[in-house]
Design goal:
Number of strands of chain A: 11
Shape of chain B: globular
Order of helices and strands of chain A: EEEEEEEEEEE
Oligomer: heterodimer
Distance between the termini of chain A: 40 Å
Structural class of chain A: mainly beta
Largest sheet of chain A: 7 strands, mixed
Order of helices and strands of chain B: EEEEEEEEEEE
Helix content of chain B: under 10%
Structural class of chain B: mainly beta
Number of strands of chain B: 11
Largest interface: A-B, 21 and 22 residues
Shape of chain A: globular
Strand content of chain B: over 45%
Largest sheet of chain B: 7 strands, mixed
Strand content of chain A: over 45%
Number of helices of chain B: 0
Distance between the termini of chain B: 36 Å
Chain lengths: ~120, ~110
């Protein structure tokens, strides 16, 4: 059974950093298109980043240069390093796995909440 | 960036109704279109991918159609469990973009 479990969210001051994790089971992270999608409170869905099986990465303009998507193949875990956070980054962050074509999201985690506030 | 525009933003309907939600892309997305259902406090759930392919386990009352820039999600006979917010999403090119959402409410 495919499972995605995020962790690492919390309250952080503006300018701060966090490392979000997404532990996967039931499949191999490194063999799939893996993404982060976020949702600000009461708002819609916003795509954040993707990492390909080959290692290529793509980012939304709003996070480029501040966020880094990566993975640990041995731990079968996806990460999102989020730096220079601002209040507009406050959101639930979901990790998601695509099907054979990127980026239709067949599997989602439960999300982890990041709150940026002074 | 490709803009995705859903209509309506809110839809009131009754159990048993047939409902249609429309999604328009600002340029052709070659059928790389997905539909998701989201309930409060939960992660989105994939319903339709590649414009018209039904995700495994999703009831057949959900269907998707369209091509190019205009797409529709149809629920043939609303069930109590269907009331939620629905999002379309294009994955033809980066950045991946979502529609603003359609909230389906009980009339």
């Amino acid at each position: 059974e495919v499972q995605l479990v995020e962790s690492g969210g919390g309250l952080v001051h503006p300018g701060g950093s966090l490392r979000l994790s997404c532990a996967a089971s039931g499949f191999t992270v490194s063999s799939n298109f893996m993404s982060w999608v976020r949702q600000a409170p009461g708002k819609g869905l916003e795509w954040v980043a993707v990492i390909y099986s080959g290692g290529d990465t793509y980012y939304a303009d709003s996070v480029k240069g501040r966020f880094t998507i990566s993975r640990d193949n041995l731990k079968n875990t996806l990460f999102l390093q989020v730096n220079r956070l601002n209040p507009e980054d406050t959101a639930v962050y979901y990790c998601a796995r695509s099907g054979q074509q990127c980026c239709d999201y067949h599997y989602w985690g439960q999300g982890t909440l990041v709150t940026v506030s002074s | 960036d490709i803009q995705m525009t859903q209509s309506p933003s809110t839809l009131s309907a009754s159990v048993g109704d047939r409902v249609t939600i429309t999604c328009r892309a600002s340029q052709s997305i070659n059928n790389w279109l997905a539909w998701y259902q989201q309930k409060p406090g939960k992660a989105p759930k994939l319903l339709i991918y590649k414009a018209s392919s039904l995700e495994s386990g999703v009831p057949s009352r959900f269907s998707g159609s369209g091509s190019g820039t205009e797409f529709t999600l149809t629920i043939s006979s609303l069930q109590p469990d269907d009331f939620a917010t629905f999002y379309c999403q294009q994955y033809n090119s980066y950045p991946v973009t979502f529609g603003q959402g359609t909230k389906l409410e009980i009339k």
